[in-house]
Amino acid sequence: MGEVSDGREDAMSSSRTVLFVEHETDIARSLSRSAGELTVHIESSAADCLDHLDQRAIDCIVSNYDLSDGDGIELLESVRAKYPNLPFVLLTNEGSEHVASEAIAAGVSDYLPTTAVDDVDVLRDRIEVAIDKHLGGDGESRIKALTTAFPDVAFLLDDRGRYCELLVGPNTESLAASSPANLVGRSMHDVFSEAEADRFLAHIHRTLDSGRVETMEYPLEVERGQRWFEARTTPLGAKIDGRDAVVWVARDITDRRDRERKLAHQHDELETLNQIHRVIQEVIHELVHAATRDDIEQLVCERLVESDLYELAWTDESEVSREGVTPRTRAGGIDGYLDTLIQFGNNIEDDPADVAMQTGELQVIQDVRETKKIPSFVCEEALSRGIESGISIPISYGNTIYGTLSLVSTRKGVLGKRAQAALEILGDTIGFAINAAKNKKILLSDSSVELEFQVTDPREVFLTVSRKLNCQCHLHGLVPASDGKLLHYVRINGAQPDRVEEMVSDAEQVEECRLIDIDDVGFVLETVMSESTIKKLVEAGAAVQSATADDGEVTIIAEVPHDTDVRQVVDTFQSAYPDSQLVGKRTVDRPTQTTQDFRQSLTERLTERQVTALRTAYFAGYYDWPRGSNAEEVAGSLDIASATLHYHLRRAQNELLSAFFDG
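^ that's the sequence the OP posted. Answer follows.
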């Protein structure tokens, strides 16, 4: 077994020895059968290759990139650490530029994709060229021979930053800062600014000091415009004109950086969205405890500003009573920006908040510099304070717009599509909370304001029914349905049920209609309506007490809390139904009723037999689940028939429910 000598002892030999490191391919055996003057040894792993080198002299190593215990680049680096000049040819199935770049930086002699060596004669020729170059055959740089194998730019630079050689392939000259003829022999300080050249030179020195591959990223203006590059540098291992030098391989990573930047933006947007959702969840949780509309709106503004997503938040008055920007509540501040908007008054035509109330849609300003939603003089005020974006969100319940919530931010990226969707839900939630607070005030107040309206609008369905069929229609009850709709229960006296049902079903705003509870006097009609005078008053915050359609005119009596802005309720209603008049307004006192009084009033509605049946069924567990007693057992306890028990229970339950709902 001969001593390894980096292949130099066979320099003039007619037979050359090749060590092929192969994993899951048959290239080595094909080469061995037709190798001519080449002697081929085969190993299956990087570890076996290194052991082989310790035992015998080799003229050239040929290695697959994919190995059983690593890859060809790792093997190349191990070989270079001990045999820096031994020819090394790398084969890979990938043919990737990344592998080529790493191979060049690690000092590979030649690089070939396996698709290029289907003919083993090609591989044999490349091996012989690599050996000849190592032995000084044609004197051409091994790096230069590889420049056509990958689309990167390679340089030889000495420790002063002087270009010793520029190696570009046929498709990479446009990636160089200057043409090859203008670079060789020049210094980096001749080509770049002093700061850039100093940075590049420091990187060269860092590479020489570490003795290993170093990387850096930098932007560069080239023939194709500004591009981003990744530099991979490694010591050359030989001096040029007596000075240390490095191999500098520059890879265009512009597309990769664009992808990374897009991913980073998506990540930031997701983090922002998560934060918005957290804030909205907290706000919704706290809305439960807000007692008044002012409390609700102030809470929302403060929480959104405290989140640091928005520096300014305010709610605006509804469109019917609005004159310019008229904040109801506010939080935060950006150098008096909101006060400036108030001073502009009606000079801002169709500002985003106004448009949001008119259309019921979000008004979003992603970039103040590019928006057409606000006048130029408002843009100037915003930009002078660093404002980048803003949004106006309609606050609504059903078809009633209470106003808007406006948010302003000195950041971009806080109003993406998903953030807008979340804020739109917040606007609906605020509207729901305001409506609920108004209804709660009506229920708890010991006095209220009673409003009486007369309506002659032909869109009111039962107005038309009463006029055409000469009948009376009375509102029997209201029940909220899904999607903001209301179930209207209307009692009609003096008309044929089928005729009324036909007329009502044909009305545009009626979605469903059915007859129920027909008797000798009249009947009750259940309707699902997308819009009605009753629904509009409910959405405006009023509690409808009664509604009657008679002879082509509708009279509606509704109550609102005593401290409600009655003018706003009336304006909201009349803006939807112009053919209506407020004909009465009076204060109504609610008498205080104790629990004992309430129980007494219920007892007075029931017969003794009904009370007995209810009490027995209740205490016997008839209303529990699972039941403690069934109907037959309760009836047996009372010594009555089961049918009789059901009769008494049904009559008693009807009286109790009537007291509760008709109260």
